[in-house]
Write a structure and sequence with these properties.
This protein is an alpha+beta fold and 262 residues long. 45% of the residues lie in helices and 19% in strands. The protein contains eight helices and 13 strands. Strands 6-5-4-10-11 form a five-stranded mixed beta sheet, with helices on both faces. Strands 1-7 form a two-stranded antiparallel sheet. Helix 1 (2-31) packs antiparallel against helix 8. The longest helix is centred in the N-terminal third of the chain and has 30 residues, at 2-31. The protein is elongated, with a radius of gyration of 22 Å. The relative contact order is 0.19. Mean pLDDT is 81; it is low at 1-35 and 228-232.
């Protein structure tokens, strides 16, 4: 009896993972997308090259070492995106409206386009929209929107583990807020399509102290999967159901075992 009970959760979890795999295989074959090329390979404790040269909104060249003086949020996006990037930038604007931390004093934000064909004019247009979306006064220098040349952008995306793929005029890409300490260390990644002020403030506090650690990515991926076709994180019903069933089966096994001992 005990052996059969042990097999139940294993079989259920296997069925759940198999069904999930079939769903993604169908999606991938339909859209002909290699999802393995897209995502973030976290590098907490790693360094970003502070000598990377980018282009400010006014067209002048600037190095990251001139901009990163304390805890800094880096957002990799592209300005003509019509799906995931606006969602993340809007969520960032709401976060900046609600956080208790002070821009420039406690942190700064830098959005960098990974599309090397975009221009400072694109950056200015997008910056204007999202500064307005914050809903309260916010310093112009507190949230910069930069562009850059392909080689410099690649140095940055490689350093933070940001993997994306061009598809025609668009890109398949992940999204995250990447928290950097004042000396260029990667301290944390924040994922999702909305951000809690508490999580953000803790991440900034860690960056100020120079501490790095694993993100909540693993926990998020238990419930969500990144869909590069839809360019968003989607609730993973099958996987969550499998986890719930597995947990219930294990609880039942423990209960039955205890009863047999008594």
């Amino acid at each position: 009896m005990g052996v059969y009970l042990l097999l139940i959760p294993i079989m259920l979890l296997s069925l759940s993972e198999t069904a999930l795999s079939e769903v993604y295989n169908r999606a991938d074959s339909h859209h002909d997308v290699d999802t393995k090329q897209i995502g973030i390979d976290e590098k907490p404790g790693g360094n970003i090259p502070l000598d990377i040269s980018l282009i400010e909104e006014d067209g002048r060249s600037v190095k990251l070492t001139e901009l990163i003086k304390g805890p800094t949020v880096i957002i990799l996006a592209y300005y003509n995106c019509i799906n995931l990037c606006p969602t993340v930038l809007e969520a960032t604007a709401r976060l900046l409206e609600n956080t208790r931390l002070k821009p420039l004093d406690d942190f700064s934000v830098i959005t960098i386009s990974f599309n090397d064909s975009e221009t400072p004019e694109d950056a200015v247009r997008v910056k204007r929209d999202y500064l307005k979306a914050i809903g309260r006064p916010f310093p112009d220098e507190g949230w910069r929107f930069l562009t850059g040349k392909a080689a410099e952008i690649k140095r940055l995306t490689d350093a933070v583990g940001f993997n994306y793929k061009r598809e025609g005029d668009d890109f398949l890409h992940p999204s995250a807020l990447i928290i950097i300490s004042g000396d260029g260390h990667i301290t944390r990644y924040l994922y999702g399509q909305s951000f809690l002020p508490f999580d953000f403030e803790m991440a900034i506090t860690e960056a100020a102290a120079g501490k790095s650690g694993p993100s909540i990515r693993k926990a998020i991926l238990l419930c969500f999967s990144y869909d590069p076709v839809g360019r968003r994180y989607v609730f993973n019903t099958l996987k969550v159901t499998g986890i719930v069933v597995l947990t219930s089966a294990l609880a039942m096994l423990v209960l039955v075992t205890r009863k047999r001992k008594t």
